[in-house]
Design goal:
The protein has one domain. The chain is mostly helical. The strands form two sheets. A two-stranded antiparallel sheet has the order 1-4. It has a two-stranded antiparallel sheet with strand order 2-3. The two termini are about 20 Å apart. About 50% of the residues lie in helices and about 5% in strands. A hairpin with a 2-residue loop joins β2 and β3. It has four helices and four strands, in the order ααβαβββα.
């Protein structure tokens, strides 16, 4: 009998990859908080995770006119954040909101790591016969 890590770990490996990519997007927003005309971006975690499940076919870029990998993230489209307080220079980054979103994403990343750790601990217990 073989162990299927896809079944054993469930959705958590995909969630980790998505959380990592989202942290890059949010960090980019924070880094460009003072860049005139920069538009803050984010993604809908639930929608992207749902689209990234293995049952869906993987999208490939076959022609130049297709979306670039930067515009599509794991099968989901990047969205622009609507600011609460518009900036005169056209920048839509609100540092306090981006920091909160980044912190929230970091906590959820840690939670996914703990879920995976728990799954591996359970597998190790089963393999040892304890």
């Amino acid at each position: 009998m073989t162990i299927s890590f896809d079944k054993a770990l469930g959705i958590h490996p995909q969630a980790l990859v998505l959380r990592e990519k989202r942290s890059e997007v949010l960090a980019s927003n924070l880094a460009n908080a003072d860049t005139p005309g920069y538009k803050a971006r984010d993604l809908d975690f639930k929608a992207v995770l749902k689209n990234s499940m293995p049952e869906k076919p993987v999208m490939e870029r076959t022609q130049q006119g297709h979306f670039s990998p930067n515009d599509l993230l794991l099968g989901g489209e990047m969205m622009f954040r609507n600011p609460h307080q518009a900036s005169l220079d056209g920048n839509t980054v609100e540092s306090h909101i981006e920091q909160a979103k980044y912190s929230e994403n970091a906590v959820q990343y840690q939670a996914s790591l703990r879920f995976i750790n728990g799954r591996f601990s359970g597998l190790m217990t089963a393999l040892r016969g304890e």
